[in-house]
Amino acid sequence: MVGDSTHTVLVCHSNRNIVRLAQLQSAKHGINLIVARDSADVLKKATGELQPDAIVLSNDLKNPNTPELVRQLNADPRLKGIPVVVVKGMLDGLSQIFKGIKRPPWNMGIPKL
Predict the structure, then answer these.
(1) Sign of torsion, CA 62 63 65 67?
(2) 16-29 and 90-101 helices cross at what angle (nearest 10)?
(3) What does the pLDDT read at residue 94?
(4) What is the pLDDT of residues 53-107, one digit of tens each?
(5) CA-wise closest residue to 82 among 50, 35, 40, 38
């Protein structure tokens, strides 16, 4: 889903219903949303043509698992400076994350709210 915003978020969550709600929230906040199916897809899309401003992951991803995926993302020089946010309950904080993206600068990998 790509809108007119200059901000893009890559999201990967194990629950497809939460991903759909993330799509609705991102549209409400004018954020481009890239949805990854799994950890391998995150790695592919994070370095793709449309580089994200932030990456939001659920804490229960597999192959690689979330901690290993975060290590791989942080080790990739092409992704230097892109914050990676790991969430347990994505819906609780997703709206605040989207609002924060519209007001950079970033502080320690978490958008200022």
Answers:
(1) negative
(2) 30
(3) 64
(4) 999 998 899 999 999 999 999 999 999 889 998 887 655 556 666 666 654 444 4
(5) 50
DSSP state of 1: -
Q: What angle do CA 33, 102, 50 make, to 5 degrees?
A: 35
Instruction: Give the C-alpha separation, 74 to 68, whole Å.
Output: 10
Indicate the pTM of the whole model.
0.76
Write down all domains in the chain, each with its CATH number in brackets. 8-108 (3.40.50.2300)
- Which residue carries 């793709």 as its tokens? 48
Exposed e or buried b for every residue in 24-36, given b needs 16+ CB within 10 A?
ebbeebebbbbbb
